[in-house]
Amino acid sequence: MRIRYMTRCGIFVGAMALCAWLAVPLAGVPVTMQTLGFFLALGLLGSRLGMVTVGVYLIIGAVGLPVFSGFQGGFAILLGPTGGFLWGFLIAAGLNWLLEKWVPLWVRMVLCQLVIYLCGLIWFSFLYGESLWAVAMVTVLPYLLPDAAKLILSLFLILKLRQHLYH
Question: How far apart (Å, rounded) are the C-alpha atoms in residues 65 and 51?
Fold first, then answer.
């Protein structure tokens, strides 16, 4: 991998960490700007480098660097209540990569957000033995509007920044 690409990935790993630290704690799952960093990485780096960025982010978080919400790190976070959402980033990045050539960016972003929700729901439900519906009421429904706003903001930033970064 070229140094330029490694540098870009590193910058966006840092951006994802910074966005994860910007959090408002609520019951269940905190509201963070982490998805903003995720979508910016995918939209500005492209699907392949975006997926590498998400993978590196999860790896450095798993080994203990405090890149997750609340300045936390460690493998236990990936197995905790928010772990499904974190793993969902990697799965969503893979989906984005698969659909990149055929599906418009905004549709991929919405699908990625849905995949992140689904992964988080399934994991949270598994941990606590609750129904998906009950878990959705706590971990998804309160976050729909903030997440929609972050998605729209990231799409706007991607469209504006792309023209300056790559021309």
Answer: 19
CA 51 to chain CA mean position, Å: 10
Contact in structure between 123 and 84 (CB atoms under 8 Å): yes
pTM: 0.91
Instruction: Please give the single-letter amino acid code of residue 167.
Output: H
Determine whether 67 is exposed, middle or buried from the number of CB atoms within 10 Å of its CB (0-12, 13-18, 19+).
buried
Three-state SS across 90-120? HHHHHHHHHHCCCCCHHHHHHHHHHHHHHHH
Q: What is the pLDDT along the chain (167 residues), one digit of tens a residue?
A: 689 889 999 999 999 999 999 987 766 566 899 999 999 999 999 889 999 999 999 999 999 999 998 899 999 999 999 899 999 999 999 999 999 999 999 999 999 999 999 999 999 999 999 999 999 998 899 899 999 999 999 999 999 998 877 64
